[in-house]
Design a protein that fits this description.
2 domains; Rossmann fold; binds nicotinamide-adenine-dinucleotide; 14 helices; binds glycine; single chain
């Protein structure tokens, strides 16, 4: 078992990573202050892990709320329905919500916990690779609005994050590979050990060898925790965690969130960012090729399908939450780490995008 501290003074918390953790009553119950616990999960995850976590809460009054599966469930209707359920069951502020599932359940559950009585206890129990290396850590919570993804939310830190790597055994292959896109992001942000593991152990990773996965998850969470500690509310450097995301979010939106998983779109977006870095001489060809090889060897896509058009990309990217002016605020990889660039609409940007589009 590995333990990391995310250091935010009075809002600090542990991230525990290991096998067979859902059964650990000391761990799960230990974070729950009040008498009541609501386990929020979905229809796919509930039959797999709900009973396990329930038995780890022997002294608590446990409630459960199971939503349908999919990104569309991260909506205001579920937000309201779950708040309604908490009020009807007389939950108090010191009671706890456990978000058991992927990033959808984690983001929705986090936002409910942030706003119920101005903030109740929250434990993140992520069960996808993406949520284990990214969304469960750092306190970004949100629901989607019909006009935009993650448009309504709050920064709200959990009391603890419990990452049981056994849960990854049932994760579909495509979801697993999509999660690896976020792991490779940390390598491109300068985490040399992650880069080394991705370059030297790809077979073990794809075979989900537990020790390799544990190390990758620990290194990823440590990097994320360090960035969040320095810039919790994204006043500056936290934006670096969005490498590939401005392009990727546009690809997801244009394809109506049905063609690409998040990590797949981010990988294509990272290739676009690399193209722009090359044209600005921020990165040399050799480093760029290494980064591209890492994504290719994992099995991530590099080129978007013909549905994705340049003008739609440029239009959609204008709405990115990071933008502070009329320019595009982009994260670009360098030979060492990444940098934030204010980018005008120029031919070099158009070329960087077009090179990864199908004709
Ligand atoms: P998800 O929650 O939809 O999970 C992906 C799929 O895997 C779903 O079908 C889910 O039911 C299933 N699943 C979950 N655990 C499983 C398991 N152990 N075995 C089998 N199936 C399992 O998607 P995700 O990729 O985990 O997260 C994506 C969401 O995370 C998006 O809404 C995105 O906006 C958000 N996100 C948030 C942050 C943040 O910092 N808060 C960061 C990145 C992404
Ligand atoms: N996933 C990006 C962040 O948490 O800031």
């Amino acid at each position: 078992m590995r333990k990391l501290l995310l250091d935010l003074q009075e809002r600090s918390y542990n991230i525990t990573i290991g096998q067979n953790l859902l059964n650990r009553s000391d761990l799960v119950s230990g974070y729950c202050e009040g008498d009541k616990v609501l386990i929020l999960t979905n229809k796919v995850v509930a039959p797999l892990f709900l009973d396990k976590i329930r038995t780890s809460l022997p002294d608590k009054n446990v409630f459960e709320f199971v939503i349908a599966d999919g990104e569309a469930e991260k909506n205001l209707a579920n937000y309201e329905a779950i708040l309604d359920y908490l009020i009807r069951n007389q939950f108090r502020r010191n009671d706890t919500l456990i978000a058991l599932g992927g990033g959808v359940v984690g983001d929705l559950g986090g936002f409910i916990a942030a706003s119920y009585q101005r903030g109740m206890g929250l434990i993140q129990v992520p069960t996808t690779l993406l949520s284990q290396v990214d969304s469960s850590v750092g306190g970004k919570t949100a629901v989607n609005h019909p006009l935009g993804k993650n448009m309504i939310g709050a920064f709200y830190q959990p009391k603890g994050v419990i990452i049981d790597t056994d849960t990854l055994a049932t994760l579909p292959e495509r979801e697993f590979i999509s999660g690896l896109a976020e792991v490779s992001k940390y390598a491109f942000l300068g985490e040399k050990r992650i880069q080394q593991i991705l370059e030297q152990n790809v077979e073990d990773i794809l075979a989900r060898e537990p020790n390799v996965l544990e190390e990758l998850i620990e290194l990823s969470c440590a990097k994320k925790a360090a960035v969040v500690t320095d810039d919790e509310k994204e006043a500056g450097a936290r934006a670096l965690l969005n490498l590939g995301h401005t392009f990727g979010h546009a690809i997801e939106k244009i394809t109506q969130y049905t063609t690409y998983l998040h990590g797949e779109a981010v990988a294509i977006g990272t290739h676009m960012a690399i193209n722009l870095s090359i044209s600005k001489s921020l990165i040399d060809q050799q480093t760029a090729s290494r980064y591209r090889s890492i994504m290719n060897s994992i099995g991530l896509p590099a080129v978007a399908n013909a549905e994705v058009k340049l003008l739609d990309m440029l239009e959609s990217m204008k709405l990115d939450k990071k933008n502070q002016t009329d320019k595009y605020r982009l994260i670009l990889p360098k030979d060492e780490g990444c940098e934030i660039v204010e980018q005008e609409l120029t031919g070099e940007l158009e070329k960087a995008i077009s090179s990864q589009l199908s004709l």
